[in-house]
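Exercise: predict the fold of this chain.
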Amino acid sequence: MNKIGIIGAGNLGKSLARGWVKFGGLNPKNIGIFRRNVSHLQSLKEEGFETFASNIDLVENAEIIVLAVLPQQINEVLNDIKSSLRSNQLVISLVTGVTLKSISDQLGGHEIIVRAMPNTAISIGQSMTCLSADKTQSESLQTVKELFDTVGKSIVIAEQQMTSATALCACGTAFFLRAIRAAMQGGTEIDFHAEDALLMAAQTAKGAAMLLLENNSHPEDEIDRVTSPKGCTIAGLNNMEHSGFSSAFIKGITTSAEKAKGLYDNN
């Protein structure tokens, strides 16, 4: 396995490293990690990951480079590594809003680049990862897809859709968690202790999602199976819609997409 170097060890970078070890079968010794605050790397070092004192050292000791930093940090990182980057190294960017062309230009015309947008469920092997690359990089794209398929599901999309993917899949994790939290609070109000309500809400949400994935069905098809005329389910659904549930959820996603578009441009 080619050695992977991850620049950035925030929540996403750490989740990715641990997910690849636990579900992708990678040896932590084959994953190097750099973060400016080295004290935050101690736990990863104890888990067997190789840690580096600089991103230049990391680049010189890896075949695949993963950029897992914030948009406002990416220019500095690219400037640091461009003189050390070899032409045959694969660069995977997880950075929101930064185009393939922008990365290539800042790396002096480097061509082997794939954009990926996973989410933090990668740490439990359940990420939804969206991938994009120039059409000339089909082999590299396949390599990256195979990596991310070990830690969830992945889909190849057009690059212009990547910002939207950020809102739906990455930010979406928080949106669905907030919906589960609301269900928990509702359960607490009607009868249950909070910890029981959370378990019931989370498992119900998991089951609902699995119905769609396993049956390859539409949400409304599954909804129809649990609603009956004059029943309690349709009464609850209609009350939620009257209160703007779907509208608020949709607006949250579109607002996040708009915000994501400017994260890099405005830094």
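Check your answer against the key: The domain at 4-157 is CATH 3.40.50.720 (Rossmann fold).
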